[in-house]
Design brief:
This is Response regulator. α3 (100-117) runs parallel beside α5 (158-170). With 272 residues, the protein is an alpha/beta fold. A 5-stranded parallel sheet has the order 2-1-3-4-5. It contains 9 helices and 10 strands. β6 (150-154), α5 and β7 (175-179) form a beta-alpha-beta unit. It has helices spanning 15-28, 65-70, 100-117, 144-147, 158-170, 182-191, 208-218, 237-250, 262-269; strands at residues 4-11, 33-37, 55-59, 78-82, 92-94, 150-154, 175-179, 196-200, 223-228, 254-257. Helices cover 36% and strands 19% of the residues.
Length: 272
């Protein structure tokens, strides 16, 4: 299949949200359908991108958002609005906190809508669709609460959590519970079922080993990933061997290196 790319014009958003969005763009390059920011200004000597972005992603709480209310959308462009007071011509409206799986889902629908416009496909993508669901499931026969794919992330640092949320969204996991406490993790495991769990073995504030055992017992079909600096080449042969031995005795799916190696993470999360 030939790779396709959707250009997205981004208006507003906080630094943290833009970081997460850039992560989604970067990780999407691994897919057949990818996304990239549309930049109308180019450096001297370079070619300015032709045409317009296929998507305008607008922060409804930004000062620039007023222009999106007033100006007419270019032909074929879809407006995804985040926040209150969306204009009537908004194609999709999302609330905060932003669920990046929902953004990814809507961007995928933009490509489908363009296929419809071109006559290559014949189905309705104009009506809002359920978000954060496994798109391979039969929506008509399963209740939404049962189709949500959920992941548990324990002990991740801020940037790691942002990366994992974005990467899990690309894998079709719509909800991610992030915790840094043992009791909080146990409470979540009692209430929810998960398709994936990611545990930071280097966070010594929590009882990670016991949590992993409990997670595997409650979610035997889930992918269980443990992350640690001891899995990296700088840890030394004996320490690497010991942590791998202990982790696999618990029954985890894989042991991943910290800092994350994107190719290694993708290798496992793409299997969910």
């Amino acid at each position: 299949m030939q790779k396709q790319r959707i250009l997205v014009s981004v208006v507003g958003f906080s630094d943290v949200e833009r970081h997460a969005l850039n992560t989604v763009f970067r990780l999407s390059q691994e897919r057949e359908l990818s996304y990239a920011p549309w930049v109308p200004l180019a450096a001297p000597g370079t070619v300015i991108p032709a045409g317009v972005a296929q998507v305008a992603l607008v922060d409804g709480e930004s000062l620039e958002a007023v222009l999106s209310h007033a100006k007419e959308m270019p032909p074929g462009q879809r407006l995804i609005w985040v926040g209150p007071d969306a204009p009537e011509h908004a194609w999709r409206v999302l609330d905060r906190p932003i669920e990046w799986a929902a953004v990814l889902h809507d961007l995928d629908l933009v490509f489908a809508a363009r296929q419809v416009d071109s006559g290559l496909l014949d189905f309705d993508v104009t009506a809002p669709s359920p978000l954060d669901l496994d798109l391979d499931m039969d929506m008509t026969s399963v209740e939404p609460a049962e189709t949500v794919r959920r992941a548990l992330v324990v002990g991740a640092e801020d940037e790691e959590g942002t990366y994992l949320r974005s990467r899990l969204a690309l894998a079709g996991v719509g909800l991610v519970d992030e915790v840094i406490g043992t009791e909080s993790a146990l409470e979540l495991m009692e209430r929810n079922r998960y398709v994936c769990g990611v545990f930071n073995l280097d966070d010594h504030r929590i009882d990670v080993w016991s949590l992993m055992r409990d997670f595997i017992q409650r979610n035997p079909k889930a992918m269980t990933l443990a992350t640690t600096e001891l899995a990296g080449p700088l840890a030394g042969w004996w320490r690497r061997r010991r942590v791998r031995r202990d982790a696999h005795r618990v029954g985890i799916t894989a042991l991943l290196q910290r800092p994350f190696q994107p190719r290694q993470v993708s290798e496992w999360l793409d299997l969910i």
